[in-house]
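CCA-adding enzyme structure dump, as promised
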Amino acid sequence: MKFIIPSYVKTLLNKLEERGFEAFIVGGSVRDTLLGKTPSDYDITTNALPEQIEEVFKDFKTIPVGKEFGTIVVVQNEGNVEITTYRIEEDYIDGRRPSVISFSSDIKEDLKRRDFTINAMAYSKKRGLIDPFGGREDLTSGIIRTVGEPRERFSEDYLRILRCVRISATLGFKIEEATLKASKEMSSFLEKISAERIRVELFKILLSKKPSYGIKLLYSLDILDIIIPELIDTVGFDQHNPHHEFDVFNHILCVVDSTPAIIDIRLAALFHDIAKPSTFSLDEEGVGHFYGHQDKGVSMAEKILRRLKASNSIIEGVKILVKEHMTQHNDYSKKGLKRLIHRVGKERIYHLLDLQKADMKCTSKNRDISFIEKRKQEINDIIKENEPIEKKQLDINGTDIVNLGYKQGKLIGEILDYLLEMVLEDPKLNKKETLMETVLDKFKM
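structure tokens r here:
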């Protein structure tokens, strides 16, 4: 197969080779190229020492981000490239980083320290493909296999256990038997890994083409019990409801698979019914109900996402979607839809519709969801008309109200809330003079 390497990467490879050093693209960029994909970034490995790399690229902007580990980042307009000296790693004592690193002159020694065979390949135009561990064959067979003994590789960095699942999920590959066995036996060691590193891998699983594949793997390997134990109660939980074909866990998986690959929506899909087991009740006819599960689900989702050190913006977005996901059953007037858009936000309202559509599709096969498309059109019309749906669209603001003689404080917010309600009912009232007259008439100074 012909390797097409971008010119900005070729420039770096050529500069190293012109100075008498070996230089290869390595890891994921080789793997993706062999799969016929365009790599998202490129890493280079070389026998040049860190100081020599800096000297070769003295006319470039470089960042010694991991110089002690042999890595120098070369800044390019098209993207930063990490250039790392061949190295040997020894004596892993914390399941994350080696206590001893030594540099090597042998590319094969460097590839030996890598996690999986499909990531342990290197390529240069001079030497062709370097593949000492059968990575290309595993790539062709669709297999994830560690380089060497699985327990040894995982002991070097326990996150590799989760990365194994992530690569399997994103590529749709099977995990080789010995690697799979070691993954399960050593999964408890993931408790030693930081929440931030776990979050990165989990989010990539959720954004894969079929996230349910990865989530099921997490469950079967006892990893889900470590990173999101709150989901375990949903597994096999019978909803006792004629409108639901699946248990709670498989319903959740179906919804996650059926939503767009946007992290807020995928997380909301994962958590939207997480509180069902703890809110379950049976009526006199033996039908299951889950009153308030969306509200409890909000608090559970927030707790999980804070534990994973997710950003505040993601947490707030997921909370809103989980809280509002049951509003699909409401019969909204135009004013009601405006209120919904106000609560959710103009951009997020479409995320909510995507979540609701997936939720209904995964409830029963013959569920009619055409009304969601109709609601989407009604929301499009409201937004296109630019009618006020939030306080900042009012033709009056807090400063205007203070200038009327009202004191700064809670009352200003209450006044604006009242005016928004009025304008939601009748958009023609959104005129400064009319709003100011209303304030003076309805609120005492």
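The mean pLDDT is 93.
lmk if u need the other ones
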